[in-house]
Structure formats: structure tokens, C-alpha cells
Amino acid sequence: MHPAISLGIDLGTSELKTVLMDSAGSVRGQASVRIATSRPQAGWSEQSPQDWWDACIQALAQLRAGWPHEYAQIACIGLSGQMHGAVLLDLDEAVIRPAILWNDARAEAEAAALARDYPAYADVTGSLPMAGLTAPKLLWLQAHEPAAFAAIACVLSPKDYLRLRLTGNKVTEMSDAAGTLWLDEAKRSWFAPMLAACGMTLAQMPALAEGDAATGTVLAAIADQLGLPAGVVVAGGGGDNPVSAVGIGAVNGGDSFISLGTSAAIVSVTEAPLGNPAGGVHSFCHALPGRWYAMGAILSGASCLRWATGVLGQPDEAALLALVEAGLPFDVPVAPSAPLFLPYLSGERTPHNDPQVRGAFLQLGHDSTPAQLGYAVLEGVAFALRDAMAAVTSTGAVVPHCMLVGGGARSQYWAQLLANVLGCEMRTLHNSELSASLGAAKLGFAAIGQRQLLSTGLPIKNTFLPDAAHSAALSLRYGRYRSLFPAVQALHQLSEG
């Protein structure tokens, strides 16, 4: 009998990634497909759920062609995906409109109204209402697209749309449900009062499962279409950050990591719900039973580096990083007068909860160089994560050291800068760019009773210790960075006025 293979599918914002994992935890194959985002108005961010399914079909075709033996042994599928998106289905399970994504800011007024009218709910749902979460989006739809709102029979999170196409079942799991603002985090059940506040009912919610539970098997017709064996089990899976945590082995209290992708987040696993909604901290259910996590999120992470690369005329991010490393070597602390960067290109979540604030370069001079501006971008994201880390630890969560995952983890320079700014040991990991799809594959195995991989992590690639020689200069610059937020916030308010 051939050993089982688990297929991990991670539906990210910019691409869908897949891996084939064997029962020893080794990656046997991988494939990815890019996904386009539509921005029909300023502050809007949408994707077509059909594009997700098409990307899934394409990625699986690549796996089948490249690793036919392993593909034929797939016994289970785990799902991971971008959180907080709203996929609206009618009674026929047809998609009503494009999905509104996590980084869409249109529901700012609705989020503020929920926070004003139902302040006590935040302690139950684990978070303040924010424009990026799912619940305010539905209030916006009710006001601005009433016909679409009236047609809603079910609301799914993005990765759960893939589950529907695979299994025919409308199911979500605790971690993605937690990101909707409709879940009672402690009880791990839907919170009817918040649903009612959004004009929604329990009947419009999918069934709930834990991330390591079986949620159905692949439909026979879909298995034939995709060339999958019969009876493949689909696990609950989870949102991208909690499933990344499973992928790297962050499953016990105090396990912490920074995800440095399009957005960025600092996450600490907890064994009970620990929240500070007023500080912009999310307390969400983990993808595993009996676990939660405290998270501080910033809306623009490595995407700031991508933006700066284009603005500064560099061919790619690696070229800009090389310029920074050559111009600002680590053995020389950065001058206090060097440019500062506020990384609020898409607004900010933790701790400011302001989706409309925008970023800025400051302290520019005739002697400012592209290397200095590139450095300022890396440092600005690190400073935003320091803000988020302070908010997370205010809950009682602990961050003894941090694993670093996501595209930004490829830069050793950035990893060392994060260690210096946060005063915390940073560890980069082998295969960390696949952490969400690896975690999804692990949850797939768990759903068929093979749980041995849940407690394993990824091999450490490098360890970065804080450099005390840089702490004084960085603390001074961080203080200046902190003082600038009210000014850029006031600029937006003036433009609105």
C-alpha cells in the first residue's frame, strides 16, 4: 500500500499556493497560480471567486503533471486562505457579486457605527469592529447594494468557497469564523446578537467545524474533473495566519511569529481568549481546538517594499535591498536625521484602527538617497510591528522570541532590523514561504486521523539576536515615528473637511 499524500491549498491575496506533503512532513511537490485583484474605486478591493476556483484547477493540473505518482496518492486536502472576505451566495449557491476582501476600506462608517452602538460586543467577538472585517461589509451592502443584500442565502469566507466547490458543503471553521466578527470567541459558536446588528441571521451562516475535523469528501464529479482519487477527505483548515502557525509549529501558549507578507501581523498563541479590543488587538480562535491567539495586524507589510521598488525605479525588491545593504551597513547605526517612513499605504489596523490614514516619507533632504528611502521603508514596517507587539503583550500574551514567515523573511537584513527594533530574537525557517500551505496539509492529515505532524515545526535557517549597539539610535527614531501619526491622521481629516 502506498503512503498517503496530503494536498495543502493556500488561497492568498496575490496567489494560490499548493503543496503535496507526505506523512513524514516532506514536501513532494508544489505549484502556484497568480490571482488578480480589482479596485473599482479608491479604497475598494475585490476578487472573483470563480478566479479562485480557476486558479485551484490550474495549480492542481500543474501538480498532476509534475508529480503524477504523488498526486495519485492524495488522501486528504487542507484549506488555508485570506481572512475577512465576504463571498455572497444566493439560494442556488451562485455568487451574487465579487468578493469584498480584507483590505477593502469602504465599510469604515459601518464599522464605526457597530462600535458605537454595540460597544460590549467587542469583548465577545474578540475585536473592535474594523472596516476590514466581514461584519461591517454586510452593513455596507445593506445600505448601498440592497438588492444584493436581499439575495444573500449564505456568506462564506474565501477558502470556504473552494470547499463548497470541492465537496458541495457550506462549512467554515473556527479561525475564519472568528475573523468575521460574528463568533463568540470563548464559546466557539455564532454570536446571534452581532448577526442581528448586521441584519443577518443564523440561517445565513455556514456550519462550524474545527480546523482539524473532516468537513466532507470531494464530490465524485469534481474528483473526475481534477483527476483525484475517490473519497478524498477535506479538512476544516483555517485562516492564513492560524494555519501558518500550524505550519511552523506554533501551537502552544507563548509560541509567537511575525508574518511579513502583503500585510503583516505579530501573533502569540494563547490557551484562553486574551484580548485588548481598544488597543486594536484581535483575539481569535486558532485552527486547533482549545487554542486561541492574540494578533496585532498592520495592513501594509512587504507590500511597502514592493511599492518602494517601483517608485525608486529599481528592477525588483532584491535590487533595492542590495542598495540598502550597501549604503547602510549594519555596523553603522542610522543617523537620527535620516528619512522616516510611515507605512500606512492601505490605512492601519493595530493599534490605530484607521483605514483612511495614509503613509508618508518625512525628514527628506537634498542628500536623501534611494538607499536611505529603502531603509526607511524597512524600518517603518518594523516600527509599525513594534506598535503592534506592544498592543499584543498588553493582553498578557507573551512573545519570548519570534519566528519570521512570509515573503519578507527572505531578507536577512530585514530580519536583523526587526530583531533590533523589537528587542526580540528572530528566527527564520526553511520553507517558511510555504507555511500556510504546509499547515493546511498538516490539518488534512489530522482530519484522517494522522496527527503526528501537528507538533512539528520547520527547521531553523538563521537566528538573529538584538544588537544593543543600535538600540539607542533606533529608540530615538521610533519616538519620532510615534509622534508623527497624529499629523498624518489630521491631514486626512483636513482633506475630508
TrEMBL record:
<feature type="active site" description="Proton acceptor">
    <location>
        <position position="240"/>
    </location>
</feature>
<dbReference type="InterPro" id="IPR018485">
    <property type="entry name" value="FGGY_C"/>
</dbReference>
<dbReference type="GO" id="GO:0005998">
    <property type="term" value="P:xylulose catabolic process"/>
</dbReference>
<dbReference type="Pfam" id="PF02782">
    <property type="entry name" value="FGGY_C"/>
</dbReference>
<dbReference type="GO" id="GO:0005524">
    <property type="term" value="F:ATP binding"/>
</dbReference>
<comment type="function">
    <text>Catalyzes the phosphorylation of D-xylulose to D-xylulose 5-phosphate.</text>
</comment>
<keyword id="KW-0547">Nucleotide-binding</keyword>
<dbReference type="GO" id="GO:0042732">
    <property type="term" value="P:D-xylose metabolic process"/>
</dbReference>
<protein>
    <recommendedName>
        <fullName>Xylulose kinase</fullName>
        <ecNumber>2.7.1.17</ecNumber>
    </recommendedName>
</protein>
<dbReference type="InterPro" id="IPR050406">
    <property type="entry name" value="FGGY_Carb_Kinase"/>
</dbReference>
<dbReference type="InterPro" id="IPR043129">
    <property type="entry name" value="ATPase_NBD"/>
</dbReference>
<keyword id="KW-0418">Kinase</keyword>
<keyword id="KW-0859">Xylose metabolism</keyword>
<keyword id="KW-0808">Transferase</keyword>
<dbReference type="InterPro" id="IPR018484">
    <property type="entry name" value="FGGY_N"/>
</dbReference>
<dbReference type="Pfam" id="PF00370">
    <property type="entry name" value="FGGY_N"/>
</dbReference>
<feature type="domain" description="Carbohydrate kinase FGGY N-terminal">
    <location>
        <begin position="6"/>
        <end position="247"/>
    </location>
</feature>
<dbReference type="InterPro" id="IPR006000">
    <property type="entry name" value="Xylulokinase"/>
</dbReference>
<dbReference type="InterPro" id="IPR000577">
    <property type="entry name" value="Carb_kinase_FGGY"/>
</dbReference>
<keyword id="KW-0119">Carbohydrate metabolism</keyword>
<comment type="similarity">
    <text>Belongs to the FGGY kinase family.</text>
</comment>
<feature type="site" description="Important for activity">
    <location>
        <position position="10"/>
    </location>
</feature>
<feature type="domain" description="Carbohydrate kinase FGGY C-terminal">
    <location>
        <begin position="258"/>
        <end position="447"/>
    </location>
</feature>
<keyword id="KW-0067">ATP-binding</keyword>
<feature type="binding site">
    <location>
        <begin position="83"/>
        <end position="84"/>
    </location>
    <ligand>
        <name>substrate</name>
    </ligand>
</feature>
<dbReference type="GO" id="GO:0004856">
    <property type="term" value="F:D-xylulokinase activity"/>
</dbReference>
